[in-house]
Design a protein that fits this description.
alpha+beta; Immunoglobulin-like; Purple Acid Phosphatase, chain A, domain 2; 8 helices; binds fe (iii) ion; binds calcium ion
Length: 502
């Protein structure tokens, strides 16, 4: 039975003739902006969430407990005048009134614009790009790569600078939110702003935290500027979590993550699990393999920091889990792309504080799962992958390095390159020199570059080469820093190894 009040509210929400749906006092519902993601040759996911009161205590964003129809449209012009696809999706309370529209029927390799309407309210317009047709020749893919945006540590200026590049794709490698309470893990230089409450643990907490982050205009600008391809790392759930973390907390964090990201239904969480590893193809130019190195990894044997830990050298250990590893190696064998790009969370190549055999390596990264690294690396080598490039987040520093099959053998040929992107804001303004990390460049000759500044990575992928610009903003403690290029590298087709440009 529906009581009289709910019936009336539903009537308002679903548009009884003469009664405008979603009218005041709910207020402007598009406070969290719009987003799109996971482009295919025929479409993409368009996302929004209705939340007139983003930080409402109950996590429902100030929405009434009724379904609300949300109209969407996709157009071929930036003003959304020439509409080519439209429809209506129901926003329901069960999913915090988030909407994920899987738009299809579009043309490959072109720009589109989209927006939503609910009642009398119209959302901002977002820009989308469809992927090229399968196997089609492609001249250029421009991709911005990013990770680690701690709201308390700094302004998200780098997100706006990324948006200004007008990339085809924005690849987010995780730590999109941080779960910390407002008094926890402060920025070394002092926090510039505060989280809305204590450490996020429940679904309500995670919903409010995601909503807080999306109230940031720089973040909304980055979402509106280009399709995103997001994967999560640890802080979307809890610092350095593994599959051993209690199921209710994983379930809450995964659900809130899905609700706030432009993900396909295939990524809809099932209780305490979420399928985020997936592939995206950009014509014949690039195949993106997006990994989940958190959910299926074996437990840490020696903590998460740098330590000597012979046990973690056990070749049977895995950071991907068996099923994902099989899927990845299969993907390498099937790939006909010029570039196979592996987007994932934690440092892939070896970084030891002391020269071999006295390995002191970070246990939370692939170094703590070296058997996994060897199998994946050998997997792409044996599959005859033409060019392999690994993209990495998590480290709050820019890094560039070459990848080898065997780091203990000086004659082991180079088999790929790794580009690790710094944080948007985590760690605060940063600095140009860091003795401990600079020392890693000496101990690990395959590592070529390191800089502990905030920023993003801009990749221009072309058939003959990938050009990678390490972009920095010199401060995040105050808004408005310009973006500068701190270093540039290229990787040439069929010639593994980074070439320094600037
Ligand atoms: Fe981080
Ligand atoms: Ca992390």
């Amino acid at each position: 039975m529906i009581d009289r009040r709910s019936f009336l509210v539903m009537g308002l929400a679903s548009g009884v003739p003469g009664v405008p749906p979603l009218r005041a006092p709910y207020g402007e519902p598009f406070t969290l902006g719009v987003a799109c993601g996971d482009p295919a040759p025929d479409g993409f996911v368009a996302w929004t969430r209705l939340a007139p009161v983003p930080l409402a205590e109950d996590g429902f964003g100030g929405m009434p407990p009724v379904p609300v129809p949300v109209y969407w449209e996709v157009a071929t012009d930036p003003a959304c005048a020439k509409v080519v696809r439209r429809g209506t999706e129901e926003a329901v309370r069960e999913w915090a009134h988030a909407v994920h529209v899987e738009v299809g029927g579009l043309e490959p390799a072109r720009e589109y614009w989209y927006r939503f309407k609910a009642g009398p309210y119209i959302s901002p317009i977002g820009r989308a790009v469809t992927a090229p047709a399968a196997g089609a020749p492609v001249k250029t893919l421009t991709m911005a790569v990013t990770s680690c945006a701690n709201y308390q540590h700094g302004h998200f200026t780098a997100y706006t600078r990324m948006a200004q590049e007008r990339p085809d794709l924005i690849l987010h490698l995780g730590d999109y939110i941080y779960e910390y309470g407002k008094d926890e893990q402060p920025c070394p230089g002092g926090n510039v702003r505060e989280h809305e409450g204590p450490e996020a643990k429940t679904l309500t907490d995670y919903r409010r935290r995601h909503a807080l982050y999306k109230t940031d205009p720089d973040l909304r600008a980055a979402h509106a500027a280009a399709p995103w391809v997001p994967i999560m790392d640890d802080h979307e759930v809890r610092n350095n979590w593994t599959g051993l973390l209690e199921a209710p907390r994983r379930e809450a964090a995964f659900r809130a993550y899905y609700e706030h990201m432009p993900l396909r239904r295939s990524a809809m969480p099932q209780g305490p699990s979420i399928r985020l590893y997936r592939r995206l193809r950009w014509g014949s130019l690039a195949t993106l393999h997006l990994l989940d190195t958190r959910q299926y990894r074996d437990r840490a044997l020696c903590g998460s920091g740098f330590s000597e830990c012979p046990k973690s050298e056990d070749p049977g250990r895995t950071i991907t889990g068996t099923e994902q590893e099989r899927w990845l190696l299969e993907g390498f064998r099937e790939s006909k792309a010029r570039w196979d790009i592996i987007g994932q969370q934690v440092f892939f190549g070896r970084r030891t504080k002391y020269p071999p055999p006295e390995l002191v390596v970070r246990q939370d990264a692939w170094d703590g799962y070296s058997g996994s690294r060897t199998r994946v690396t050998r997997g792409w080598v044996d599959a005859g992958v033409r060019n392999a490039v690994v993209l990495t987040g998590d480290v709050h520093s820019h890094w560039a390095g070459d990848l080898a099959l065997d780091y203990d053998d000086e004659d082991s040929p180079l088999v790929g390159s790794e580009l690790a992107v710094t944080s948007i804001s985590s760690g605060g303004d940063g600095h140009d020199h860091d003795r401990a990390r600079d020392a890693l460049l000496d101990t690990n000759p395959h590592l070529k570059f390191h800089l502990r500044r905030r920023g993003y990575l801009l990749l221009k992928v072309e058939p003959t080469a990938i050009a990678a610009d390490f972009k920095i903003v010199r401060y995040v403690s105050t808004p408005g820093a310009p973006a500068l290029t701190a270093a540039g590298f290229t990787v040439a087709d069929k010639l593994p190894g980074l070439i320094r440009q600037a």
